[in-house]
Amino acid sequence: MLHSPQQAEEVYVETFLRVARDRVEWQQRGTVRGYLFTIAHRLCLDILRQRRVMREAVPHLVQLAETRPPSPSPEAQAVLSEQAAALEELLARLPAEHREVLLLRVVHGLSAAETAEALGLDEDRVNSQVSYARKRLRQWMDESSAPARRREEA
């Protein structure tokens, strides 16, 4: 969500600090895993809001963000090279709500119920958004591989 390993690590640490701090107040309404992802998701949204405020305050930063495409993380480049970079670019093209749901369900392995709890959605909406995100990614992947297939055939 953040495209920043440093900020992701800060969210990770802050999530567990909040769990430790609020452990007495927590009531078991769902799974611990869902509770952790809810906290982490909200912290990420706070950081994204702060970024937006900073960009709006400094017009030059907005221009930089618009002219420079999001770059994949160094870990993704090292592990999966070009395919990871292409997939990360496609993920960045997804609307934020679909990307979040897809990442929680597929990458982090949360169930539909846990994802719904973490994002404040109902399970049907979660399943619908995952389906949409997968369909769009497949479509974009097919479109990007079509020119390469045509060159190979020629």
What does this entry look like structurally?
By secondary structure, the chain is mostly helical. The chain has seven helices and no strands. Helix 1 crosses helix 2 (32-57) and helix 6 crosses helix 7 (123-153). The longest helix is centred in the last third of the chain and has 31 residues, at 123-153. The protein starts with a helix and ends with a helix.
Walk me through the topology.
Blueprint: H1 5-21, H2 32-57, H3 59-67, H4 74-93, H5 96-107, H6 112-119, H7 123-153
Helix pairs in contact: 1-2, 2-3, 2-6, 5-7, 6-7
User: Which bin fits the share of residues in helices?
Assistant: over 70%
Would you identify the CATH architecture of the largest domain? Orthogonal Bundle
Strand content: under 5%
Instruction: Find the CATH topology of the largest domain.
Output: Arc Repressor Mutant, subunit A
Write the element-wise H/E pattern from the N-terminal end onward.
HHHHHHH
Structural class: mainly alpha
What's the rounded overall pLDDT mean?
77
User: How many structural domains?
Assistant: 2
Q: What overall form do the CA principal axes indicate?
A: globular
Radius of gyration, in Å, reads 18 Å
Largest sheet: none
- Any idea what the CATH superfamily of the largest domain is called? Winged helix-like DNA-binding domain superfamily/Winged helix DNA-binding domain
The CATH class assignment of the largest domain is Mainly Alpha
pLDDT under 50 segments (min length 5)? none
